[in-house]
Amino acid sequence: MPTPNVVLHVADVHKRFGGLHALADIDLQVEEGQTHAIIGPNGAGKSTLLNVIIGKLAPSSGQVIFDGAILTGRKPYQINQLGIARVFQTPEIFADLSVLHNVMIPALAKRDGAFKLNMLRSLDSEVGIRQEAEHMLEDVGMHSSRDMHAGSLSRGDKRRMELAMCLIQHPRLLLLDEPTAGMSRHDTNTTIELLKKIKSRGMTKVIIEHDMHVVFSLADKISVLAQGRIIADGTPDQVRGNPKVQEAYLGGTH
Amino acid sequence: MLAMSRNDLLLFLGFTIAVLAMPIWLQPFGAAYPDLLQRFMIFGIFAVGFNILFGLTGYLSFGHAAFFGVGSYAAVWSFKLLSLDAIPAMIFAVVVSGLFALAIGFVSLRRSGIYFSILTLAFAQMSYNLAYSVLTPITNGETGLQLTLGDPRHFDRLFGEAMPGQPVPTLLGQSLGGFTGFYFCAGFLILAFFIAQRITGSPFGMMLKGIKSNQTRMNYTGFNTKPYTLAAFVISGMYAGLAGALLAVTDPLAGAERMQWTASGEVVLMTILGGAGTLVGPVIGAWLIKYFENIFSAINETILARFWDFLPDGADHFAVVVSSKFVGEGWFLTLGLVFVLIVVFLPGGIMEGVRRIAHLFDRKRSSPTNPGKTAPHPQPAE
Fold first, then answer.
1. Residue A115: which of B3, B210, B228 has the nearest Cβ?
2. Which of A221, B124, B153, B236 has its CA 20 to 30 A from that of B68?
């Protein structure tokens, strides 16, 4: 078996908040093109782990390596410019702007970099960026709402738009923090369909999830986190049959 | 590069015509005299620039009068040292206030929200106190910096002796008093409006709106928001400096009081009153406040008595007493009431009122089966 290409490597990460050991000895390897799910009961440290990966929190020790570059100590915008996009638990969108502009902004970030004093051009003359954004919106099935205020979208549509905002940057790694949290069953299902569609394009994804239905229908690999430690690692089938996992979920903090 | 959409072009042309025709259409309001018109232009520029920071980027500065004052001082110094011509003075003022804004913005923008506002307020009050007492050799303290016959004016001296009499700012030898001064300022307001319009419609302007809307998302989208906010801060500081310089051109006396916090607060009121984030709103807000300040404060009891004359005896006296509280010294009361009414009923300022009225007409015109392109409203979930 050829050694798969590891895109993201979380190496021996510890995170302490005062006396609380939120993450202990986390070692995680995400392979190129795979959808890697991190699951665990509430308070297991899932969000902390995600925040360490994205640079919002600094680990107490250990480091995060993405494609040969150490992420630890970089700012969120620098991490994004390396090719990592993030979907938040509560969609982080530009509520005051139109849907189309919401999707054009990340496309401009991809093209122009972290800062460009682009004052002389008119946004109307950015035809290429605009077309790209319109295609992206068609792709996620939101083209008809492109002129709406993003703030007035339904929760499910906000999530779809946020995904479009990430996907237009063609990230090498997409991080999803509970992408279906707080959604109706209908919205959950459309989001899963969309994520499956993206999956077929071979983008690497790390998904933090609570909902087993979502995890087992999407993930290639699952890591189970409980009380700050990884207690199991493997394919969905391996994890499902693991007695430790069943204990963590059924007899643990839950 | 200068291609504009049809709507932008119409807005710009409409604005230009409205400004240039002000001496005509303000006649019935009693405001068509050059002194007040110049102030309309100057504070219009101040508000347009302030709106780039506050309305577009969402950073509420409580210290913009500092840049206004620095612009005035810089312009007067240019008159004293270099030349009485207005153009070098304005360039000098814009550059100096821009550098000043760069320094203050660099520190203040390390924080956002209320902390940013307080930092800018602190810096402005520091500047005011420096100008009032500590830096007296530069600012002439309480008296204010003014032109004298003994000023060196090195450029002017190269081309011959100074003219006799009290020196006044000129443009290529032409005096800038009266309506000439108004048209000079109007040219700059139109230019300032044009640049603000370009910035608003550019990718850079879109980034500023993004920062106002959701700075977290901007960071995770790959933008370094710091230089964007700093650029917006410096640009609006330069606008303030330009306005301050124009005030020095029309009246070559720079005093510390124009840097005081009340002056910083005034531009905030102007922007909110007219409509923060809109292009025209801040200008209208500035005009309205300056109109109140100059016209309402000039109304006295004699004028009121004549106005209420049609009422029966006794009632007219009562009306005069009540209404006199709202004019003259009491014009602040009227302004305060107008401000409260607008913020409560039209949080988007006067421009929101204009939009609502336009919307009403729009709805009437389109048939009931085709609601037309009304303002975005929530779409029922599928």
1. B228
2. B153
